[in-house]
Design goal:
The chain is an alpha+beta fold. It contains 4 helices and 10 strands; from the N terminus they run αββββαβββαββαβ. Helices cover about 25% and strands about 25% of the residues. The chain has a 5-stranded mixed sheet, with helices on one face.
C-alpha cells in the first residue's frame, strides 16, 4: 500500500509540471533562417543615348553632352556647355568646345586625357541640342523662339508660328542674320510664295536668324 501511494504521488507531480513545460517551449524563439544576401549588381555601362544631329551641327552654349570614357569612368560626366563655350570635366578642368563638332571634341578630350591615363578611349554623345534656335516676331499667331533641329525654311517657320495674322504686311517680311558680326537682311514676300513666284527667297534658316513680320 505504501508503494502504491508513492507511485500515485509521483504520477500527479509529473502531470502538474507538464503545462509549465509546454508554456516554456512556446516562448522559446525559433531560429530564423535569413535569406542569403543577393550579390551586388554589376555597375551599369555609361549611356550612349543621343539625339539626331543636323549635318552642319557644331556644339554651342546650353547643349548637353555626355563624355564617356569606357575604361576610366571616373572621367565620364554629362555636362552643359556654358555661355563661354566651355565645359568642365573631372581632372581635365575647363575645355573649349563651342564651334566644334562632336568628333573634334572627342579628339581634343582624348589628347588631354593622355596626361592622366594610358590609351584613353573617349566618346562624345550629344544628349540635348539647345543652342540651335531661330526667332520669329511680329504679326504671326505664335511669335517666339523655335528649335532648329532640322533643315527649316522661312515659310516652314511661319507655319510653325501658326501663320500670319489678318493685318500682317505679307510683302514686307525680312530675315535678319548675324554673320560674323555683320547684320545681313533677306527680304521675303509671302504673297509671291503663294503665287509660286521668286521661290529662291524661301531660304534655309540658320541658328540665330530672326524673321520679322510687320
Amino acid at each position: 500500500m505504501h508503494f502504491r501511494n508513492l507511485a500515485l504521488v509521483t504520477l500527479l507531480s509529473f502531470l502538474a509540471v507538464q503545462p509549465a513545460l509546454r508554456g516554456q517551449a512556446a516562448q522559446t524563439p525559433r531560429a530564423e533562417h535569413s535569406p542569403a544576401a543577393a550579390p551586388a549588381a554589376p555597375a551599369a555601362a555609361p549611356s550612349t543615348v543621343s539625339v539626331d544631329t543636323p549635318g552642319d551641327y557644331v556644339i554651342g552654349p546650353e547643349d548637353v553632352l555626355g563624355i564617356v570614357f569606357w575604361r576610366d569612368r571616373d572621367l565620364s560626366a554629362d555636362v552643359i556647355v556654358r555661355p563661354d563655350g566651355r565645359v568642365s570635366l573631372p581632372l581635365l578642368n575647363d575645355i573649349d568646345v563651342a564651334g566644334l563638332t562632336p568628333d573634334q571634341v572627342r579628339e581634343k578630350i582624348t589628347e588631354q586625357a593622355k596626361r592622366y591615363v594610358d590609351e584613353p578611349t573617349a566618346t562624345v554623345v550629344v544628349r540635348q541640342i539647345n543652342s540651335r534656335k531661330v526667332f520669329i516676331t511680329g504679326n504671326v499667331e505664335r511669335p517666339g523662339t523655335f528649335p532648329l533641329l532640322r533643315n527649316t525654311s522661312v515659310l516652314q517657320l511661319i507655319a510653325l508660328a501658326g501663320g500670319l495674322k489678318e493685318f500682317a504686311k505679307a510683302g514686307d517680311i525680312v530675315v535678319v542674320r548675324n554673320d560674323g558680326g555683320r547684320q545681313l537682311t533677306f527680304p521675303f514676300n509671302y504673297d509671291d510664295m503663294k503665287n509660286r513666284k521668286n521661290l529662291t527667297q524661301n531660304i534655309a534658316l540658320k541658328p540665330g536668324d530672326t524673321v520679322i513680320v510687320p
